[in-house]
Amino acid sequence: MKINNRKSQCGATLISWLMAAGLAVLIASAIVKIAPYYVEFNNVKGFMKDIASDPSMKKANMRMVNKKIEKYLNVNGLYALEHAYYNSKPGTKPELKTKNPFTLMRLRKANKRVLVVDYDVPQPWIGNLSFLINFRHAVVLGYPDEKYELSKKVEKRRTPKLNLN
């Protein structure tokens, strides 16, 4: 009769600890790269709500809305949105030209105007890997707390159409 005096393994090996540490470093580096843009987007949602709560904005045209937007962009450090916004202006080099991230839409049934922001932020990560972060938000001008929902067609065509709840 053979007696086995070997202890069974307890805990993780050095290789499994190194793999876990490497995975933790990758996740932490991704969070460090992406988190500032989500903080910036929360600021964008806040200033859009401020614009929507202004009663004079109910009947505003795009020129008036752009003046308000530029005031907020000049004061706050919204670098990704500034880059998208100012590269859409006339006089920008053709290879840098993008579409304006802000659009003003009219809801025909409700006779309301909606301000929509839609912009992308490419963020390099490791080597040739990068993140493409897409931000979208919409507010009804004059009714900042009104609930709305972006339709599924917006996701495909990238032209905002809104349905009020």
What's the helix and strand layout?
Blueprint: H1 14-53, H2 62-75, H3 79-86, E1 102-107, E2 112-126, E3 129-140, E4 148-150, H4 152-157, E5 162-164
Antiparallel strand pairs: 1-2, 2-3, 4-5
Q: Return the structural class.
A: alpha+beta
The value of Rg in angstroms is: 24 Å
Helix content estimate: 40-55%
Please tally the helical runs, counting DSSP H or I stretches of 4 or more residues: 4
Mean pLDDT: 81
Distance between the termini: 77 Å
Estimate the global geometry from the Cα principal axes. elongated
Element-level helix/strand string: HHHEEEEHE
3D architecture notes:
With 165 residues, the chain is an alpha+beta fold. It is elongated. It has one domain (36-164). The protein has helices spanning 14-53, 62-75, 79-86, 152-157, and strands spanning 102-107, 112-126, 129-140, 148-150, 162-164. Residues 152-157 have low confidence and may be disordered. Helices cover 41% and strands 24% of the residues. The chain contains four helices and five strands; from the N terminus they run αααββββαβ. The strands form two sheets. The protein has a three-stranded antiparallel sheet with strand order 1-2-3. The chain has a two-stranded antiparallel sheet with strand order 4-5.
State the gist of this model.
Helices cover 41% and strands 24% of the residues. By secondary structure, the chain is of the alpha+beta class.
What are the salient characteristics of this protein?
alpha+beta; three-stranded antiparallel β-sheet; elongated; 24% strand; single chain; 165 residues
